[in-house]
Every structure is written in C-alpha cells, then in structure tokens.
Amino acid sequence: MYPPRPVLVRLDGASAEPIEPHMKRSSRQTRLTPAGPEIAFRNDYARLVRSLALIAGDVEEASDAVQEAFIQACVHWRRVGRYEDPVGWIRRVAINRLKNRRRSRQRRDRAVARLDPPPAAADPDTGMDMVAALRTLPERQRVAVVLHYYEGLTAPEIAAAMNVSEGSVATHLHRARAALRRHLEVT
User: Which letter does DSSP use for residue 27 in this model?
Assistant: First the structure.
C-alpha cells in the first residue's frame, strides 16, 4: 500500500485542487504548498515550546529549538509526513537541538573556566518551586518527567522521543520522582 498523497492548499488558506507534484506552475499562478507542516505547526507549536521550555529552563531556547525542528520537518516533509507520528519526530529533533546546545555551552564554559577563576558562589534560594526543582534534575530525568507528566506521553512514546528503552524511561522517572520528593521535602 502506498502512502497517501499530500493535500495541497494555497498559502492564503483557500482550497485548491490537488496537483501532481512533478507539474510545474508558472510564477503567475498561485503558489501551492503541502498542508501537513503548516497544520502541525498551528496545532502543536505552542505545546511543544511549553514542554521544551520546562526541559531547557528557557522559553527562548525552547522556541528556537522547536522552530528549527519545524524547519527541518518542512525541508524533509515528503519523508516526515509519512511517519506514523510526525509531531513525535519534530519533538525528537527539537530535544536533540537542545542537547546539542547544552553540550556546546558546556564545552564553552569549561574552556572559559580554564581561563578565568570561578566567581564566588551566592547563597542558594531556599524557596524552591517546581520549575527550579526540575532544573536540579539531570537532563534525561528532566526530559522524562516533562514528557510524562506535562505532555502526557506514555512510556513507549517517551522512549521513542529520547531514543532509549522503555525500562530506561521507567528508571529515569523513578529516580526523578525520588529526587524531586527529597528536594520538595527539604524546602
């Protein structure tokens, strides 16, 4: 069975007849585009940004990662659009973007630390809220917690998004709950 052909619509939202992908259109004709990535963007962008903001601890960084993931989805939509869960693919790409930025930032910070002495440590704030508690978790635990409790994903969906086994997801969730419990009992 062949995958369904993409439905093509005008950028202004009006309906259009499907056309063959190999047919060229003149510059005077209305530009047509696949409907899938635009619909996914409208339906899922804000939710993905909110989730990744909890993972990253920064709304702007999360927004950038999700936007870059949607750009990649548009570029590769012929392939991504056939996936069972294209939004899951977009989520995975955005999480990978966050990981890459974190690793890059860590490398940069280590290089700067070799050059400069560390600044004096400030007194930690004793009133820790949930977002601050999430920031104390290791990255994989934080990702698992946000995807499970905030996004409502199941263990298999989280495993696919994190590229780990379902058992690893259960372990990350268990350890994260224990760490959050300790943090929230102390504060």
Answer: T
